[in-house]
Design goal:
By secondary structure, this protein is mostly helical. It is rod-shaped and about 50 Å long. The chain starts with 8 loop residues before the first helix and ends with a helix.
Length: 48
Amino acid sequence: MKSDLPPSPQRHEENTKKLRETLCLCAFVANIIHLILRGRGLSHAEQI
């Protein structure tokens, strides 16, 4: 059951932390993919 009340400060802090961790993970994975593709000599235009 979900309430319509705004999240408590603690809950908001937990959600913010999870979001930050998710963004960091996504950026890390994107960076690795970019390095792999760059290492193969593919430019961004060639990927499209």
